Amino acid sequence: MIGCLFVVSGPSGTGKTTILRKILERQDNLEFSVSYTTRQKRECEEEGKDYFFVSRDHFEDLIERNEFIEWARVHDNLYGTSRKYVDSMLENGTNVILDIDVQGALNVLRQRPEAVYVFIAPPSFDELKRRLEFRGTERQEQLQTRLRNARWELSKIKRFQYVIVNSDLNHSVVQLEAIITSEQLRVDRMKDRLHGAGLDFREVDVRDN
Ligand code: ADP
Ligand code: 5GP
After folding, report:
1. Does 160 map to a domain?
2. What is the CATH number of the domain that holds 141?
3. Which of 61, 92, 199, 209 has a 20 to 30 Å separation from 137 between CA atoms?
4. pTM assigned to the model
């Protein structure tokens, strides 16, 4: 059975990383796709776990070699998703979750309409600003860029299938888990499993009564 691809997106500071960390602790058959980035590593981050931190030359070489499903310039840095990693996991039957910006999500949507698209929205713009300031990982100028970009990103919500307003963290985690569970139970995704259990999917025209 092919795995299911979940694309989680939304403005920087809305809580995507925090929610995904919790989800990944709780879900067995779900792997996080570690992106490549040219951004500087933050103190709390680990190479190969949070990102693969690479030089701009290395990143451009990966673009040339068509190694990315999508890549984008986000808040002045480059970020990209490994095609090889995602496809090998999916072919293996493992579900994969991406944490990517809205440009990236819309790009994946064009190529993979069968994936599941979830937008994580902040409870308000003021709260988004407060979270970014509280996280304290960006200088004032970078923080302003992220807030400016957030307006454009929020305007794309309607292109997604689901939206979670991340007010209460635990509630958001439960909601994302509900989406992951429901999507896996869709009849079209269950076909192989049902077939394996001897249940035939072809429609039968004649019935006894
Ligand atoms: P993103 O990955 O979307 O950029 P983060 O996960 O880094 O966002 O979260 C940004 C900040 O907001 C972090 O300091 C995080 O602890 C905090 N945060 C995340 N979710 C919530 C929430 N539901 N309520 C309050 N603070 C939150
Ligand atoms: P940060 O620098 O805060 O880790 O991430 C900034 C933004 O880049 C976030 O919105 C995050 O979702 C996004 N991002 C992370 N990896 C990728 C990726 O591979 N592709 C794209 N398009 N965006 C990414």
Report:
1. yes
2. 3.40.50.300
3. 61
4. 0.94
